[in-house]
Write a structure and sequence with these properties.
Elements (H helix, E strand, L loop, with lengths): L14 E3 L18 E3 L6 H52 L3 H84 L38 H14 L11 E7 L5 E8 L2 H14 L8 H7 L3 E4 L5
Antiparallel strand pairs: 1-2, 3-4, 3-5
Length: about 300
């Protein structure tokens, strides 16, 4: 087994395995040689590009070798054909000659020409075999180059996806952090409590008439209570796992209906996250029709479970 090309430091990323496989003399392809060029697996697209470039260089050498072998086979055939013609001509002359002395000289010359013809045929057979081997090596190199180029493309796709996934993960992490900050209590128009927002951990004091939404008390328009719950219900994403649990969140409403801040009072984290997300997305509720209604519901406590209560 002889490798056609030696592995160099420049081709450190390329593994070339050229295997000569000879079968027994009884086989129809006993003189055939199979060449296989392996493409080393890369971890990055840049590494894959270097592998592909090195394989291209090797493929160019294989192409040159194949062309040389092909030309050598052509020359060998020309010599074999010429030798055959000389033998045929001598045989014809011998058959037409009656002079014994001349015929003996021609037969001696024929013997030498036949020996030369056998050598020419052997040289032709060897040259044709080498040309076939060189072509197989070229085909193997071309296939390896195609495989290496595909590896570059696949790694570039994978790296682009990994970059996009990382960006999405970072964005989600930031979103989660902002929500964590907001769960601690924050100003909807300002920012998270950990980022300098207007934290309202104690809540805003009521005026005595402010009742929790849904507590069955208060003299103001109960229709406004329903409007608040309906608005928050539109942005509240319910999950079946919320069954049997609830999160209480106190919100503070400006006179124009804007939800200015909130305070999580109690409840499991998963429901409270959904509740606060609904409040943040809603941003506001319908404006109270009069001051009496506003004063009653400006700081309501909302219950979030399978429904907004």
């Amino acid at each position: 087994m002889k490798p056609i090309f030696k592995t160099t430091a420049l081709a450190a990323f390329v593994a070339l395995s050229l295997t000569a496989c000879g079968s027994s003399s009884s086989s129809n392809d006993s003189n055939s040689i199979a060449a296989q060029v392996e493409v080393q697996k890369a971890k990055t697209s840049e590494q894959a590009k270097r592998i592909a470039e090195n394989l291209k260089d090797s493929a160019n050498k294989a192409k040159s070798a194949a062309e040389q072998a092909k030309n050598a086979a052509k020359k060998a055939k020309t010599l074999a054909d010429k030798s055959q013609s000389e033998v045929d001509a001598l045989k014809k002359s011998i058959s037409s000659t009656t002079d014994a002395t001349k015929k003996a000289a021609l037969e001696k010359s024929l013997k030498a020409k036949e020996t030369a013809l056998e050598s020419a045929k052997k040289a032709l057979s060897d040259a044709q075999q080498k040309a076939e081997e060189a072509q197989k090596s070229l085909d193997a190199h071309n296939a390896a180059v195609a495989k290496a180029n595909n590896q570059v493309i696949e790694l570039q796709k994978a790296e682009a996806k990994a970059k996009a996934d990382a960006a999405a993960k970072a964005a989600q992490a930031k979103k989660n952090q902002d929500l964590d900050d907001f769960l601690s209590g924050g100003n909807i128009g300002g920012g998270g409590s950990s980022n300098g927002g207007n934290k309202n951990s104690a809540g805003l004091a009521g005026n005595g008439n402010g009742k929790a939404v849904g507590d069955g008390q208060g003299t103001a328009d109960r229709g406004y209570e329903r409007l608040i719950k309906q608005k928050l219900s539109r942005t509240y994403k319910v999950d079946p796992s919320f069954a049997g649990q609830e999160c209480k969140v106190k919100i503070n409403i400006d006179r124009d209906g804007r939800i200015s801040s909130h305070q999580v009072l109690s409840g499991p984290d998963n429901i409270c996250r959904a509740a606060v997300a609904a409040i943040v997305q809603a941003q506001s509720v319908p404006r109270a029709k009069d001051d009496a209604t506003y004063n009653t519901y400006k700081s309501p406590t909302i219950k979030f479970g399978l429904k907004v209560l």
